[in-house]
Amino acid sequence: MNPKKFATQIDVKVLKELRSYAAQTDRSISSVVSEAVAEYIHRARVRPAFAKAMDEVLNEHSELLQRLAK
User: Fold this and answer.
1) Distance CA 34, CA 42 (A)
2) Interior angle at CA 24, CA 22 and CA 27, nearest 5
3) Is the pTM above the cut of 0.70?
4) Are the C-beta atoms of 25 and 32 separated by less than 8 Å?
5) What's the helix, strand, coil split of the chain in %, to 5?
6) What 3-state DSSP class applies to 14?
7) How many CB atoms lie within 10 A of CB 32?
8) Is residue 48 packed enough to be buried (19+ CB in 10 Å), middle (13-18) or exposed (0-12)?
9) What are 37-68's pLDDT values in tens digits?
């Protein structure tokens, strides 16, 4: 990893929790934030693809699903 500094602002309560979590897990705040942001981005990208695939399945099999729901 090639870390790069950047500045941002965070809610005071969230920062307190972040510091506490980092200390409890013996990690740096930077590593916790990096992991959290990476996970958030991954989820944000997967959700639309999953939702689209789910819509396609529901549309394709709507009659069967309606019969199963009865």
Assistant:
1) 12
2) 40
3) no
4) yes
5) 75, 0, 25
6) helix
7) 15
8) exposed
9) 999 998 888 788 888 888 888 888 888 888 88
The residue written with tokens 């897990």 in the block is 25
Q: Is the dihedral of CA 38, 44, 48, 54 positive or negative?
A: positive
Q: How many CB atoms lie within 10 A of CB 27?
A: 13
Q: Which two tokens stand for residue 44?
A: 């944000």
* Residue carrying structure tokens 């005071």: 12
- Does residue 54 contact residue 61 with C-beta atoms inside 8 Å? no
Domain boundaries, the chain: 29-70
Sequence letter at residue 17: E
Determine the length of the chain: 70
